[in-house]
Design goal:
Layout lengths: L1 H5 L2 H12 L2 H4 L6 H6 L2 H12 L3 H21 L13 H20 L5 H16 L6 H27 L2 H34 L5 H30 L1 H10 L11 H7 L1 H32 L6 H31 L4 H14 L1 H11 L5
Helix pairs in contact: 2-11, 7-8, 10-14, 10-15, 10-16, 10-17, 11-12, 11-14, 12-14, 12-17, 13-14, 15-16
Length: 368
């Protein structure tokens, strides 16, 4: 259900981002140069800003949503670490951290300063930072120190215990590698559409957003029944194979959209939306199944640590994936034969799925 809920954003986000991206180029017919000259200073400044940074609005909207998500996590999710449950003020934590950094730097510069002077300086900074809460600084510091001691003692041991399990390592590697492949596909698709725009039968940002939104509609309506059907009939390990065969390999068919574009542009858009919708369904199937299987490889008390390690590795993969896909797709599409170059680009990305097929037998081993 988590991927099902998360990918609901496919319905709104692509269309919204495509609508507000590069507004000056998309809506040039709405404003002429004379209109811009007659407008006020604020309008001219905004026009120059959007002309220099045409994709500012989607990125700004994404940043705002990220901050809202962070605030929702901080204010709505309770602290799960019992030793630190009483430390609920971000301001106290931040001021205490700043004061600790000041004392650390000061001690490195002048280590002869006595303990008494340090205590007096600490009280003066606390009086400025906390005001009337000066008497609670010591208890807050003691609780934070206790949290740090507990964390340092247990975190390294827990991470080592998670990574020492061969079956857990194999599942995490499959999860990280699949994340890299999927983010490479997501990066390659808009690059392909933009390159086609420069050659022939191009798609605008709004049209690309419409394709992604329609694929999101297909995903949201069919992901859950497809997943439950595969699990009930074929099993959870077979669902991993379907995530490779139908989630990765079909991307080699994306360049064939140019054939439909020669006939009818709407047919090309429908073809791409249908193809992306199918691949997204089975990509979600793989992520859902590998998450369940990875959690089964560790005891319950280690699942939070394991998920943290898995999320960190997936984040690294998602940072590397766009770099690899960007250079690869740009190199392939720079060839004289654009159709052959796009076929080679997506064919190379699809071939990455062969490594996943080789990894699948390793995931079915019993944990030690």
């Amino acid at each position: 259900m988590y991927p099902f809920s998360m990918h609901r954003g496919f319905l709104v986000a692509p269309a919204l981002a495509g609508f507000i991206a590069d507004p000056l180029n998309v809506r040039t017919h709405d404003h002429t140069s004379e209109d811009i000259t007659n407008e006020g200073v604020a309008h001219r400044v905004s026009h120059r800003l959007l002309e220099t940074y045409p994709y500012l609005l989607p990125n700004l909207l994404g940043a705002i949503l990220c901050w809202l998500s962070a605030l929702a996590v901080y204010f709505c999710l309770p602290e799960t670490l019992p030793e630190c449950s009483s430390i609920s003020s971000m301001g106290k934590d931040f001021c205490n951290w700043v004061s600790g950094c000041i004392f650390t730097v000061r001690d490195k510069i002048n280590p002869v300063i006595g303990v008494k002077d340090e205590a007096e300086a600490h009280r003066s900074i606390s009086a400025v930072s906390y005001g009337s809460l000066e008497g609670n600084i010591s208890s807050v510091a003691d609780e934070e120190q206790q949290c740090q001691v507990v964390g340092k003692q247990s975190l390294h041991k827990a991470v080592s215990s998670v990574l020492s399990r061969p079956n857990t390592r194999y599942h995490l590697l499959a999860y990280w590698y699949y994340s890299l492949v999927i983010i490479a596909i997501d990066e390659a698709f808009p690059l392909f559409c933009i390159s086609r725009h420069k050659i022939k039968h191009g798609l605008s940002e709004a049209e690309i957003g419409g394709i992604l939104s329609f694929s999101g509609l297909i995903f949201s309506l069919t992901q859950y029944p497809v997943y439950t059907t595969i699990i009930s009939r074929f099993g959870i390990y077979a669902s991993l194979g379907s995530g490779v065969w139908l989630g990765v390999f079909p991307v080699v068919l994306i360049p064939l959209a140019s054939i439909f574009a020669d006939i009818e542009s709407h047919a090309s858009m429908f073809y791409l939306a249908l193809l992306l919708g199918i691949t997204k369904i089975f990509q979600s199937v793989f992520f859902s199944s590998v998450t369940i299987l990875t959690n089964r490889t560790v005891p319950i008390d280690l699942r939070s640590i394991m998920n943290g390690v898995g999320g960190m590795g997936a984040g690294i993969s998602k940072a590397i994936g766009p770099i690899i896909a960007g250079f690869w797709v740009a190199y392939c599409l720079s060839s004289k034969d654009s159709d052959l170059g796009s076929l080679v680009a997506f064919g190379g990305i699809a071939c990455l799925g062969l490594v996943l097929l080789a990894m699948l037998p390793l995931l079915q081993g019993d944990d030690d």
